[in-house]
């Protein structure tokens, strides 16, 4: 998800994430996971403010 820079800080991202969590729960999902670049410290603080906890470490290979 991305909120345009000029619209950040208005609660749009928080509303979008609340909707995603609600949809996942309604669908019977037991876990909602997201990924974020390690350099995006502000984004990580945002996710943590929503109740997300850091979990694991990801690796990828492009073929």
How does this model look, in words?
With 63 residues, this protein is mostly helical. The relative contact order is 0.12. It has two helices and no strands. The chain starts with 11 loop residues before the first helix and ends in a 14-residue tail after the last helix.
Give the mean pLDDT.
93
Cα-to-Cα separation, first versus last residue: 25 Å
| Molecular shape | globular
Over all CA atoms, what is the radius of gyration? 13 Å
> What percentage of the residues does DSSP assign to strands (E)?
under 5%
What is the structural class?
Answer: mainly alpha
Number of helices: 2
Helical residues, percent: 25-40%
Helix and strand succession? HH
Uncertain spans, ≥5 residues at pLDDT below 50?
none
Largest sheet: none
Number of strands: 0
Question: What are the defining features of this structure?
Answer:
mainly alpha; 2 helices; globular
Offer a quick outline of the entry.
Helices cover 38% and strands 0% of the residues. With 63 residues, the chain is mainly alpha-helical. The model has no long low-confidence stretch (mean pLDDT 93).
